[in-house]
Each structure stands twice: as C-alpha cells, then as structure tokens.
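We store chain and fold; example below:
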Amino acid sequence: MTSFQSKKILVTGGTGMIGRQLVPLLLDAGAEVRVAALDDPSLSDSRTDYRRGDLTDRAFCDAIVDGQDMVFHLAGIKGAAGLSERRPASFFVPLILMNTQMMEAARCAGVERYLYTSSIAVYEPKPVFVEDEAWEGPPHPGDRFPSWAKRMGELQAEAYKIEHGWDKIAIVRPANVYGPGDDFSPNGMVIPSLIRRVVEGESPLVVWGDGSTVRDFIFSRDVARGMMLAIEKGADCTPMNLGSGDGVAIRDLVEALLSVLDEPPEVVWDTSKPTGEPIRLMDMSRAREKIGFQPQTSLAEGVKETLDWYLENGGASASRFSAFDK
C-alpha cells in the first residue's frame, strides 16, 4: 500500500483495540498520524500527535481534523450483551453526537477520504449478513440503541454523497472483534470476558448456553488491515463487511482458550441463561472481490496473542476511558 505515504491521517479512537493495531500499520506505510481519544496519553503510540478530547464537542472535532488528508473514525462505545438495554442513553447519545460531529467536521475541512466504522449490529436477525440486506428489517431489539446510532452514520455518509458529491467515504461493518487492548472489564464481550475470568482463577468456569451458538470472530489486526484496504480501494459509500465469514461455535471458542492454558479449569454450561441468535455470520464476498480482503489470523493464534497481552498488561485497562463509569 503506497497511498498512505506522507499523508496526514487522523485516527479517532486510536488508543482502542483496533486503533492500536491500525496506527502502527499507518506509520509503517509512511503516514503522519494524529490520534484523538479520551484515554490517558500513555496509551498512545509515542510517534503520533496525540490529542485528548471529547468527540461530542464540535469545536474539538474541528480542531483535530484541520489539515488532515484522511480520517479513520474508529471511536465508539462497546459493551457486553444486555448492557445497551440497561444503559441505553450511554450508548445512543454519544454515538450519535460523535459520529455526526466528526463526519461533518471532516466534510467542512475538505478531507479527501473518510472511513466510518459501523457494526455487525446494524443487521436484522439472520443467520448470514449480506450488506445490501441490512435495511430490510430493524436490528435486534436488544441492540436497538447502538445499532440505530450506527445506522444513522451510514445514512449521513449517503446524504453527503447525494447532496455534496463527497463519495470518498468507506463504510465498514466489523464482526465480533477481539485482540490485545480489548475491554477485559465485566462489561467486556465474550472473548475478553472469558480470558479475564480464567486468569482470575474462576473454577469451574461457567459459560452461558450449551456452546452451540455460532458467531463470526475476527482479530483486531485483520480488521485494521481491512480498514486500510477499504479506504484505499472501497471508499464509495458502499457498506462492506469485515469478518472471517467462518462460524465458530462458543464451545469451540472455549476449547481454543483452554488449549493455551497451562492449567485449564473445568467448564460448566449454564443452559438456563440466554445466548442470543443461534447463528450470526458475515457474508464476505464483497470484501474479497472489491478490496482483496482475507483475514490472516486464525482463532487459535488470535486468542493466544490476546491472552499473552492480558497476562502482561492486564492492569492497562485502568487507564482506559469508559462511558459507563459516569
């Protein structure tokens, strides 16, 4: 990839799980990178121009986008299943504000290319998610607040293409992303949650369901690579899935984690607990054909790298900003 050489690139959420993979890739490609986030500056790559601030503030968005050639908008709010129903405003309001303010600031500043990070959650419940079918029905009721906020960002990009002719916007819908720097708190998703609990010595390890639920997991570095390909080759306001396309049963995920532990705990499956839709997979045809995207990290490799990172940096999450601490 040569299109990033000497480009001035803003990465919002650059201290997050995907951002900390994307930033080094952009720097290695010759870009001048600016990072904007609410985390402690110590979490930012020292080679970047780090700006700490709130993306719901339009003045801050205007300041950080000034002079930039490209923007990767990764900043968002992530939480475990059920959290968006207990804390819906903490998801919906800041997502709507930061997505709207950041994209408008970029348009007004004349940014060449923009990447908008949407979500797998925008889809209505189906076994396989195909990009052009996303608006055939509403998203899952349990995801409705963050999902509709993400959908509005996609509409905003389409509106700019129609009214202003700004069509150099890549829209990506990542699957269930995991990796170093994930949220290992009790609010975290399934992989970081399992890692934290086994490291803390939970035994037996209680897992919801019977293990048959199938999900599409993708390693954070693969998502970062896909984002770079998308903004380079697929910036035309057409949504694109970024997943593996391969289903992994939760039982297989647990076995992959246990296989890299020196002393794996006993596992108890709690079938009385809810598990969500039986199958959620990404159709990856568009990303393969349009930008040549193919994940490079197997689940076993990704889980081990994530576990190793947590063992070395488990306390790092203490300096991460959380919308749910308010």
